[in-house]
Amino acid sequence: MVSLTHIEIDDEELETAKKLGGHKTKTAAVAEALRQYNQRMNRAAAVDYYFELARDWDIEGAEAAHAAEKRGAAE
């Protein structure tokens, strides 16, 4: 699905984005910028999600259990 939208964008910035990205059209440059923005925001949301999960992790306990397992396997 594609939306026809009227927005104001700085011409110099758009031309720079087209050149840097190798885009032939303004639409392609804006579409790529939006795609990259969405990817970056999704990654940031994932980092936040896993950071919140990690608050409850017992890293020291997990490391101790792992070390105990290794010692038990070596004996």
Q: Could you please describe the fold and organization of this structure?
A:
The mean pLDDT is 92. The protein has helices spanning 11-21, 26-54, 59-74. It has one domain. The chain is elongated. The protein is mainly α.
What structural category characterises the helix and strand content?
mainly alpha
Amino- and carboxy-terminal Cα gap: 62 Å
- Total number of β-strand segments? 0
Shape: elongated
Order of helices and strands: HHH
Strand content: under 5%
Which segments are poorly predicted (pLDDT under 50) over 5 or more consecutive residues?
none
Helix content: over 70%
Major beta-sheet overview: none
- Mean pLDDT comes to 92
Q: How many structural domains?
A: 1
If helices are DSSP runs of H or I spanning 4 or more residues, what is the number of helices? 3
**What is the rounded Rg?**
24 Å
